[in-house]
Design goal:
Shape: globular
CATH class: Alpha Beta
Structural class: alpha/beta
Strand content: 5-15%
Largest sheet: 8 strands, mixed
CATH topology: Alkaline Phosphatase, subunit A
Radius of gyration: 21 Å
CATH superfamily: Alkaline Phosphatase, subunit A
Number of helices: 15
CATH architecture: 3-Layer(aba) Sandwich
Length: about 375
């Protein structure tokens, strides 16, 4: 009997150690690039689109900086850290239909509020959320869920975005945690954040409802350095704004700039013992855009191509690397549950109708 008991306990301990080893993630970061097309992410500079907005596009600095002979070379010139480091050594990406990998929205509206709400809550609500002007989100987000689960940890959850609508999208209970977007401020003793708040009102973006992504990134980084933030959303917006303005050169420059910020964030994570080896990141978009030179700047119900998105996953608990191939279709409504599962939480406790965690990420 003693031998049997000892054997039993050894098996239990081995199982427990295996489970523990597989759950390294303690922190999650969601990064969104508003309306960043799959075409640029997987193929880099699109000469047909560039030509449609500038007949002399080959003389521009953007063409010289990002043009190359193949899609792989172009995307690496556009987002070198993302492709040469993150997707090679640390993560994987879904959504390249040329490799038989699809990522799609489940909402049928293909614009921002419905898309972001689907990402954050894990469920599309086309019957309720029909406009970017929709008031406070009536549905709790995964940030609300994590905040409730980690109630004993102040400042464990935060939302920082460039678009002012996130003051309405990010939570159904304003004041539950820090939600900061556009030109909004909040009381802080952090001198760096206070100075960024001062400057954002003096360096105005061309769009009244959007601050420059630079401020969103800097404020989010300062907050993370000050607090041990366990779950954070950083929402960039200028990829969408410049696309609507048909300023393709700036779309490309914004993707390059965002790549630098992701690199800076990663370097911070790798040096900080609170985050190193304990942090999972999901990078994705709220919607796609048109596929041709005529509709590349558009999205919405009348642009079916806009249902196609992409998702990248960087996690110490996920062994996948590079581009997904011959993969099952994954959906935007699975992101919330996936982020929660990475930190050991079951999102179905909050929303049983939400999409399920993405199975491929957790397959052994």
């Amino acid at each position: 009997m003693n031998i049997r008991r000892i054997s039993f306990f050894i098996v239990v301990l081995l199982f427990a150690s295996t489970v523990f080893a597989q759950n390294k993630t303690e922190n999650v970061i969601l990064i969104t690039l508003d309306g960043a097309r799959t075409q640029e992410i997987f193929g880099g500079l699109d000469a047909e689109v560039f030509r449609s907005v500038n007949k002399n596009f080959e003389t521009t600095a953007a063409f010289k900086n990002y043009s190359a002979a193949t899609p792989t070379e172009r995307r690496e010139r556009l987002m070198p850290f993302f492709w040469k480091t993150l997707m090679t050594s640390h993560g994987s990406i879904a959504g390249n239909r040329n490799l038989k990998s699809e990522a799609k929205t489940t909402n049928k509206l293909f614009f921002s509020y419905p898309g972001y709400s689907e990402i954050l809550t894990g469920q599309a609500h086309d019957d309720v959320i029909k406009s970017n002007s929709h008031p406070q989100n009536p549905y709790p987000s995964f940030l609300d869920f994590v905040n409730r689960k980690l109630a004993t940890e102040p400042n464990a959850v935060a939302e920082f975005s460039s678009w002012d609508a996130f003051m309405r999208i990010g939570t159904n209970k304003p004041g539950s945690f820090v939600v900061n977007a556009a030109y909004e401020t909040y009381p802080t003793n952090n001198k760096e954040i206070a100075e960024l708040f001062r400057l954002q009102s003096q360096v105005l973006a061309p769009w009244p409802s959007v601050r420059h992504d630079y401020f969103t990134f800097r404020i989010a980084m300062a907050y993370m350095k000050e607090h041990r933030t366990r779950a954070i959303h950083i929402g960039f917006d200028e990829t969408d704004d410049y696309a609507h303005d048909k300023n393709y050169e700036r779309v490309l420059d914004t993707l390059r700039m965002t790549d630098k910020w992701i690199e800076e964030l990663w370097n911070f994570i790798e040096k900080d013992p609170r985050y190193k080896g304990r942090t999972s990141i999901v990078v994705t978009v709220d919607h796609g855009r048109g596929n041709s030179s005529k509709d590349w700047s558009d999205h919405g119900e009348d642009v079916p191509e806009a249902q196609y998105i992409w998702m990248a996953f960087i996690s110490p608990d996920v062994a996948l690397r590079g581009e997904w191939k011959d993969a099952e279709t994954i959906y935007q409504n699975q992101i919330a549950a996936t982020l929660c599962k990475l930190i050991g939480l079951d999102y179905s406790e909050q929303n049983r109708e939400a999409g399920k965690p993405i199975a491929r990420l957790f397959a052994k």
